[in-house]
Amino acid sequence: MSLDFGRRADLADVRRVGIPRALLYYRYGIAWRTFFEQLGCEVVLDAPSDRATLETGDHLSVDECCLASKLFLGHVSALVDEGVDAVFVPSLMSYGRFETFCTKFQALPDLAENAFIVAGRCVRVISFRIDEPKGDAEEDAYLGLAARFGASRKEAKRAYKAAADAQRAYDASMAREQEKLVKGLSKLPEAERPLTILIAAHPYVSHDPFVGGVVEDALREQGACVLFADETDRSRALKCSYDFSHSIPWIVNRELIGSILMLHEHIDGIVLMSAYPCGPDSMCDDAIERCIKGKPILTLTVDAQAGTAGVETRVESFVDILSYQKKGGYLNA
Fold it and tell me: What is the pLDDT of residues 270-326, one digit of tens each?
């Protein structure tokens, strides 16, 4: 890929870059923030999701958009209201044949721009595209964007390296902490070991306080120890997923499946969460339920309906069933 350093600095006037606190921010947010800060930009994050975020995004969306996409547009709107110079919305397509992203991530820049045009509002979107099988490599994408900010090749490489290193260190730290927790639990006597429940969901579902926070809080209030499928070692989980299937195309779903297999013997139950109507999850969650045996599974599909009582009640019932089962209730019935 040819990079025009010093020639096409059309983003040199952008000083305040907004990053929506949604979707793949929960996967690559550390890298994105570090990259723009290395270029001398001020990074602006809007507030975490709430009901108002969803209502704003829902107004900007078509009905067919998934809950997560509606929240994303709500976050973009909040950043526009804060007066950022531009909003960063990358187009992520693929890192390999069986390492692709949902089509919503591929078309996200167009979705953001057009949704606001229809609403009569203006949003300046900055982006890059990663599609490694077709030659759009990750490093080139970052370097090309840095060039548009007026960075030299050396400055661009330094910014990309800092971003990649920061994200890698963060991911490794989260994986180590969860591995340490799992090892500590395994050393406890069975009578003292709390129920251990794995939340398997896209990180923008499990870690968004408005979406997954309700489930995490309900589990912890019931005394359960909560693990997250996205906080295992990604490379190991991805490799492990091929023991389950060789044809699943989506990288994040692959990692979640691999994580379930890796943690299977250490958990008492699994909560499968999905944002309605996620296409990849509808296929993969069904396959998980059918093919991964030996652990109870609670499937939760989160939609735009108001109220959390239904979700909390289902989680509480799930924990009660697991607790009764752990005490041998069903075996002795």
Answer: 999 999 999 999 999 999 999 999 999 999 998 876 556 678 899 999 999 999 888
CA distance 169 to 161: 12
Six-digit token string for 314: 């289902």
| Four-point Cα dihedral 133, 255, 200, 306, nearest 10 | -10
Strand partners, 272: 200, 299
Tell me which of 2-16, 22-36, 311-325 is least confident: 2-16
Report yes or no on 72 lying in a domain. yes
Considering the domain architecture, whether residues 217 and 122 belong to the same structural domain is answered as: no
Q: Which domain holds residue 307?
A: 188-326
| Separation of alpha carbons 262 and 241, rounded Å | 9
Instruction: Check pLDDT > 60 for residue 333.
Output: no
**Measured distance CA(321)–CA(323) in Å, rounded:** 5
pLDDT tens digits for range 95-136: 998 999 999 999 999 999 999 988 888 899 999 999 999 999
Residue 16 β-bridge partners? 42
Pairwise CA distance, residues 291 & 299, whole Å: 14
Distance of CA 263 to the CA centre of its chain: 19
Domain count within the chain: 2
CATH number at residue 23: 3.40.50
Is 0.90 surpassed by the pTM of this model?
yes
- The answer to whether the beta carbons of residues 116 and 123 sit under 8 Å apart is yes
Residues 154 and 192 in one domain: no
Neighbouring C-beta atoms of residue 333, cutoff 10 Å: 6
Three-class DSSP labels, 229-272 = HHHCCHHHHHHHHCCCCCCCCEHHHHHHHHHHHHHHHHCCEEEE
